[in-house]
Design goal:
The protein is mainly α. It is about 80% helix and about 0% strand.
Length: about 450
């Protein structure tokens, strides 16, 4: 029995209020958060477009140095991940997410004038500090608005911004890079300037647009606010009664650490692919004798991510219909574990991109369903801390993946061995998903258990 039914409303009226509230949240909040995520991911991966298009030559970077510069971002992010999410829980999403966006936009703008590898390292580190807490903050924010049974669907709409960052962002980045010489700047420097200014502008808009909680949303009517508050409170009472966590207990919870390990494998694959795919495509010229313009390289880079966005939506739709099951996360992990090591053994550029597309579809299909799991057993400050810790471990992978990939490539002379490492990391994620994470129950299931 839902909260609305307990007040005497009929089932049809309950469904109408529920559908109306979720629809308004989906269209009022999720696209805006998706835009923020789009800018966020484009900003942090801009270095992957700059690297093979003049930056590595201008700054004299080896593959290992480029990988270190890409990865050191995550060290700064890791330092402030948990404190930032606790600050968001205390001060509210409107103020804190706005502050994060404006801060990272300012730091990102400074990349326009970077002059050495050392300066690049410091700016990437500071960028990580500035961005710390954005993604787990957005996940936490949505968990405070959306009941469990709707969470997978809403997260999939939010998460689709990530693959679309490359679908849309790669051609935009290539266009900016192609403006080489404008304002006396190299193309890759213009690209950094072009992706940083939107962060500052949208950060300012966030302060005025984003409501912290349902009671602050003018576009929800009284009955919708009441239903949301009662439904979310009911779930919190269930979680508290069964296994609710404060901050310290959440950080020590074994399930949080298992989810952290699973997420590590997915993000290791995501960033190994994201940071080095433009470089791998650039290597087609020496491997296969092909020639591509900067814009063609950008369009090729975008190819895997459009099918990935479609796969994400369809897979999450099935998860919403059935309820998120372990195989909604574990099967994509297995597919990624097998496909990504095979990519560089393909005989043609087209076959290589086809296999990489399969890998991208696998990774992105799993992620929104994965993020529906932590909120099953975490609430309040414990949710803020636990979600931040899980994302922190993902950012450890974000540092390790580009650095290890670049270093092993320098050592072996090819990307074959680094991609095999990615396959092993994703295989571990699949095993943990099927053996341990699948035991974490949904609040809706817990209502069937005796108190």
């Amino acid at each position: 029995m839902t909260a609305a039914t307990s007040r005497g409303l009929g089932a049809a009226e309950t469904s109408e209020v529920e559908n109306s509230a979720i629809s308004k949240i989906t269209w009022r909040l999720v696209p805006f958060l998706g835009l923020m995520f789009f800018i966020n991911f484009l900003d942090r991966t801009a270095i992957s477009f700059a690297g093979p298009n003049g930056m590595t030559q201008d700054l004299g970077l080896s593959a290992a140095q480029f990988g270190f510069a890409a990865g050191i971002f995550f060290l700064g992010y890791i330092l402030l991940e948990v404190p930032s999410n606790l600050a968001l829980h205390r001060f509210g999403a409107r103020k804190w997410l706005a502050r994060i966006m404006v801060s990272w936009g300012i730091v990102s703008l400074l990349f326009t004038w970077v002059g050495s590898a050392t300066e690049l390292y410091w700016l990437r580190f500071l960028l990580g500090i500035a961005e710390a807490g954005f993604f787990p903050g957005a996940i936490l924010f949505l968990s405070l608005w959306v009941p469990s049974r709707h969470r997978s669907k809403v997260l999939s709409i939010f998460y689709v911004a990530q693959p679309l960052t490359t679908v849309i962002g790669a051609p935009i980045a290539s266009l900016l890079i192609g403006m080489h010489g404008a304002f006396g700047l190299e193309g890759w420097r213009l690209m950094f300037a072009g992706v940083s200014i939107p962060a500052i502008l949208i950060g300012i808009v966030t302060y005025f647009y984003l409501p912290d909680r349902p009671d602050d949303a003018r576009w929800l009517n009284a009955e919708e606010k009441r239903w949301l508050n009662e439904e979310l409170s009911r779930e919190d009472r269930i979680k508290t009664g069964h296994h609710g966590k404060g901050t310290a207990r959440a950080l020590l919870d074994g399930r949080v650490w298992v989810l952290s390990a699973i997420y590590f494998g997915f993000i290791y694959g995501l960033y190994a692919l994201g940071f080095f795919l433009p470089t791998i495509i650039g290597g087609f010229e020496s491997s296969f004798g092909t020639k591509f313009t900067v814009m063609q390289k950008g369009l090729i880079t975008a190819i895997p991510y459009l099918p990935a966005a479609i796969a994400l939506v369809l897979w999450s739709r099935d998860a919403t219909r059935r309820g998120v099951r372990p195989w909604h996360i574990g099967i994509p992990a297995l597919v990624g574990a097998v496909s990504i090591p095979l990519a560089l053994s393909m005989p043609t550029p087209a076959a290589t991109i086809a296999v990489i597309t399969v890998t991208a579809c696998a990774i992105f299909s799993a992620l929104p369903n994965f993020w529906s799991i932590p909120a099953r057993f975490l609430s309040g400050a414990g949710a803020a801390a636990g979600i931040a810790l899980i994302n922190t471990m993902g950012n450890v992978a974000g540092f390790a993946a580009p650095f290890v990939t670049g270093a092993v490539k320098d050592w072996t002379g090819s990307y074959g061995a680094p991609m095999a490492i990615v396959g092993v990391a994703m295989l571990v994620s699949a095993i943990l998903t099927f053996t341990i994470a699948g035991r974490i129950r949904d609040p809706e299931d817990l209502t069937k258990e005796p108190a």
